[in-house]
Amino acid sequence: MKKIDTLVIGSGPGGLAAAEKLAANQTVVVCENDLWGGTCPNRGCDPKKMLYSAVELAEQTKRFEENGLKGEVKIDWPTLMEFKESYTSKIPAQMQSSLKNSHIQTVQGTAQFQTNGLIKINDDFYDPKNIIIATGQKTRTLTIPGSEYLHNSSDFLSLKQMPKRIVVLGAGYIALELSNIARTAGANVDIIQHNDQPLKAFPKKLVGDLVRVMEETGINFHFNEEIKSVKRVEESFEVTTNTEVIRADWVLNATGRIPNIEELNLNNVDIETDSHGIVVNENLETSRANVYAIGDCAAKKLPKLTPVAEFEGNYAAERILGLNSAKPIRYPVIPSVVYSTLKLAQVGFDSLNSKIDYKITTTDVTHWYNYNLTKEPVAKIMTVIDPNTDRLAAGAILSSSADDMINQFVLLINQKISPVEVARTIFAYPSRSADLNYLV
Ligand SMILES: Cc1cc2nc3c(=O)[nH]c(=O)nc-3n(C[C@H](O)[C@H](O)[C@H](O)COP(=O)(O)OP(=O)(O)OC[C@H]3O[C@@H](n4cnc5c(N)ncnc54)[C@H](O)[C@@H]3O)c2cc1C
Ligand SMILES: NC(=O)c1ccc[n+]([C@@H]2O[C@H](COP(=O)([O-])OP(=O)(O)OC[C@H]3O[C@@H](n4cnc5c(N)ncnc54)[C@H](O)[C@@H]3O)[C@@H](O)[C@H]2O)c1
């Protein structure tokens, strides 16, 4: 039996952040049953954004055709995939060796709780003083006839050739991001959503604009459709809903992700779970002493994002080290971005106070100098101002630069910067950040 200070289960952004922080003071083991580094760098944020970068440039170039940028731009999918793989193929080894360099022991295998509280990994038993569970999420399985034909986002990010016709089930983050990549790379795309609320957590007005722009690129949205079955017909597939049959060469299941906790055998030690994941208190402690859950696998009403997992990993490590022993975790505002035909970003909406009558303004900036420059089909900025302080409380942006611009909003909100202070600032010109003066 191996006695150690802390066992971290899962080597994604959450687990890595925790392990690195603990390593200077403790004996730490990180256990991983798949790719070192977890979802984000191997089959999530990073590879997606590498494909997106080419797609974004191609879209931008097409928009500028009538303004003097001539010549056909075409995505060469196999070469683009090679570019992506030039990064992803090195990640697991890099991540594992960086852990080893920090004197963290790495074990390849599945961690499973035993009834006596020990953890079994391969043929070894571990008796850690603390455990951090950071096992992430996985694609939700749809229980419909033909579900065996469905692919997930990892399959998409490894496609050798772009299929001619793709049907995408769901209209959330993954659906809207990967549909845009597929469409720009030449596929015909149909998106099927069971209600009329794509990207439910984002402001409806801006989502409506994004859907319209995606439709203009040729993507077909089918709302309020119940997916009944997927049937193989020779080399292709038929996706049947309550009202239609759509032909596809490839079907992506993007109907959501669920906690990846089955293999842990949590019921052996009565660790409480619900349908959103492992139940934790405001100190990220599970129902069992000295066992923490962080990142995507924890049941919390927060966006499941890489920086959130890292923030929680740091917090759990500090708590184990006794650095924040009494303080509950306090999150700063959390921005989220959908990287689609345009970028849709938001921050602060989940921290609004229902008793305050905020001043909400949506400004159409499509024809403002800095947006006209890139000929965007639409660009809008929504601001939510607290009338008591005149400060920005929340905001949303739809534009090609929303991912960077939203970080300006993050700073304004977190640092409580007033409009007067913004007005006293000299920003570089011309730049989109310089428009802040007119917006807040
Ligand atoms: C397609 C896609 C795109 C995304 N894009 C973005 C983005 O642009 N921005 C963003 O912020 N977030 C994005 N995300 C979300 C982001 O990837 C996750 O929020 C983040 O990876 C969560 O980190 P984590 O450490 O909680 O879990 P993960 O990164 O999922 O890591 C968990 C690890 O635990 C391992 N594991 C599971 N069970 C066991 C076990 N029993 N024993 C041992 N190991 C185990 C898994 O193999 C995995 O490697 C995206 C996700 C997807 C799928
Ligand atoms: N850019 C980013 O930050 C980014 C990108 C990708 C994923 N992620 C993270 O991963 C998580 C999972 O992403 P996701 O897109 O899989 O989930 P999601 O929850 O964002 O979207 C799932 C969509 O499928 C719909 N749906 C559910 N059941 C359905 C059914 N039977 N038929 C048709 N539609 C159905 C839902 O209404 C929803 O619109 C996100 O919540 C996010 O935290 C983040």
From TrEMBL:
Ranges where the Pyridine nucleotide-disulphide oxidoreductase dimerisation domain occurs = 334-433
Q: Which cysteines are joined by disulfide bonds?
A: 40-45
Residues binding FAD? 49, 296
The molecule here is called: Glutathione reductase
PANTHER family listed in its UniProt record: GLUTATHIONE REDUCTASE (NADPH) (PTHR43014:SF5), MERCURIC REDUCTASE (PTHR43014)
Q: Which InterPro entries match?
A: FAD/NAD-bd_sf, FAD/NAD-binding_dom, FAD/NAD-linked_Rdtase_dimer_sf, Pyr_nuc-diS_OxRdtase, Pyr_nucl-diS_OxRdtase_dimer
| GO terms for MF | nucleotide binding; oxidoreductase activity
- What taxonomic lineage is listed for the species of origin? Bacteria, Bacillati, Bacillota, Bacilli, Lactobacillales
Q: Which UniProt keywords apply?
A: FAD, Flavoprotein, NAD, Nucleotide-binding
Residues covered by the FAD/NAD(P)-binding domain: 5-313
Which species is this UniProt entry from?
Xylocopilactobacillus apis
Sorted alphabetically, which SUPFAM superfamilies does this protein's record hold?
Answer: FAD/NAD(P)-binding domain, FAD/NAD-linked reductases, dimerisation (C-terminal) domain
Family named by the database record:
Belongs to the class-I pyridine nucleotide-disulfide oxidoreductase family.
Q: Which domain of life is it from?
A: Bacteria
- Which residues does NAD(+) bind? 170-177, 256
| Details of cofactor binding | Binds 1 FAD per subunit.
Keyword Aminoacyl-tRNA synthetase applies: no
Q: Which Gene3D superfamilies match?
A: 3.30.390.30, FAD/NAD(P)-binding domain
- What cofactors does this protein use? FAD
